[in-house]
Hints:
The structure holds two protein chains of two kinds. Chain A is mostly beta strands. Chain A is built from no helices and eleven strands. In chain A, strands 2, 4, 5, 6, 9, 10 and 11 form a seven-stranded mixed β-sheet that branches. Chain A has a four-stranded antiparallel β-sheet with strand order 1-3-8-7, with no helix packed on it. In chain A, β9 and β10 (103-104) form a beta hairpin. The radius of gyration of chain A is 13 Å and the shape is globular. By secondary structure, chain B is mainly β. Helices cover 0% and strands 54% of the residues of chain B. Chain B is built from no helices and eleven strands. Chain B has strands at 5-7, 10-14, 19-24, 32-38, 45-50, 56-59, 62-67, 72-77, 86-93, 99-101, 105-110. The chains are: A mainly beta, B mainly beta.
Amino acid sequence: GAGVSQSPRYKVAKRGQDVALRCDPISGHVSLFWYQQALGQGPEFLTYFQNEAQLDKSGLPSDRFFAERPEGSVSTLKIQRTQQEDSAVYLCASSPGTHQPQHFGDGTRLSIL
Amino acid sequence: ILNVEQSPQSLHVQEGDSTNFTCSFPSSNFYALHWYRWETAKSPEALFVMTLNGDEKKKGRISATLNTKEGYSYLYIKGSQPEDSATYLCAFKTGANNLFFGTGTRLTVIP
């Protein structure tokens, strides 16, 4: 069956540009999560959606980061005025419920030049 | 940010050997402990979700135990195979919905 799909797989942008990363969760999964993984580190939580509601955005590192899930399925993570420290792998995960494991996409590797 | 520690950071074992590694997490505000297996160039794959003190979970040759009072979980692999080579991540969940991940244990099984 279809898993979590993220696009693009790789993104290279110049410092100062805006980028948008897309996540297609597993159909029917209520919960959607975004994580940022820096080199050599474990994934770090960015934000969480339950359906279309963004219930927790405590992990977003600055107001340049913005996420949305307007119809409760596809989500977009937008980073404005990118900086070099934004270079990381951005992982999206979805889950059918609170006690269920999260299903991860392959991630988007973002490189800011 | 909660501190979730995994040890060792990396591990090399011979094919057929059994091995184990540790995840340490805060013993307060425990909600769940997740284990994931992450192969290079693939997405993390869920192994176990553990919620109760004393939980033991098993999936094939891989098993895990949980001690919430002292804040640790062990992952065991019996008779390691080359296909077990991956990074094993644990993640601690408080009452909120986010997971706090460790940095992982990178396992290499040598044929």
